[in-house]
Amino acid sequence: MSQDPKPTFFFSSDPAGAQGGAGFVAESNPNYASIPAPAPDGQTVLSNTTDHGGYKGAHPVAAFFHVLFKIMAISIFLLGGVFGLKYVLMLVTTILLLTADFWTTKNVTGRMLVSMRWWNEVKEDGSTQWVFESSPEADQRVNAYDHWFFWVTTGANCVAWLVLLFLNLLSFKYLPITLAGLLLSGANFLGYFKCRRDAQQKVTSFMLSQAAARPQVAGHVASFLMSGGGSTTTNSGANANV
């Protein structure tokens, strides 16, 4: 039975890594096999060939823990009173679950499901620098279903706490819990969104730098596109000869 490669991350102090942080490298596990599937944008994304008990992605365990603490935190908040939990116990339990979800999403599931990570570091001068990283080969290594599952559940969790916040705006008893849930879930969502945007900016910068380094190649490509392709040019030439 074949399985998809699982990314392995090695962190080093290589200067080629992100500024102020460790290098970020993802390598596939040779013990697993996969087949490539074309993505909508023409890039290659690994397609999982194994159905993990109904989950179509490559990392079912990571996906399970990605939603476990989210569901538990919302369930305790909404149903704690039904099961007779006192307010203090419900408050502490929900905050602990929110913290566990924040740490798990930030440090574990984000790296496994979408090959991204983000963190902040304090410099010697006391200033804080935020670092957002994406695996250089994320488009080829990240499973399409894992990618979809991560963003849908992360965004839905943030929206859920936003709705709960609005429903409890006039409740000084539950407002702090919903505010904590929105802040923690929103921080992860924005952090990974920043990772994704930075990755796209790096690809654009790389393409522009290659075009600047090879102006002749870029000129030929631009001329080819403006002329409508090689077939159109050939036909035009043939018509001219006739």
Automatic annotation (TrEMBL):
Transmembrane segments: 61-79, 148-168, 174-193
Keywords associated with the record: Membrane, Transmembrane, Transmembrane helix
Membrane topology designation: Multi-pass membrane protein
GO CC annotation terms, alphabetical: Golgi membrane
One Pfam family this sequence matches: DUF846
Major localization class: membrane
Hydrolase keyword on record: no
Coiled-coil regions listed in the entry: none
Example GO BP: vesicle-mediated transport
Keyword Membrane attached: yes
Record's subcellular location: Membrane
Sequence similarity: Belongs to the TVP23 family.
Protein's name in the database: Golgi apparatus membrane protein TVP23 homolog
Protein source organism: Leishmania orientalis
Lineage: Eukaryota, Discoba, Euglenozoa, Kinetoplastea, Metakinetoplastina
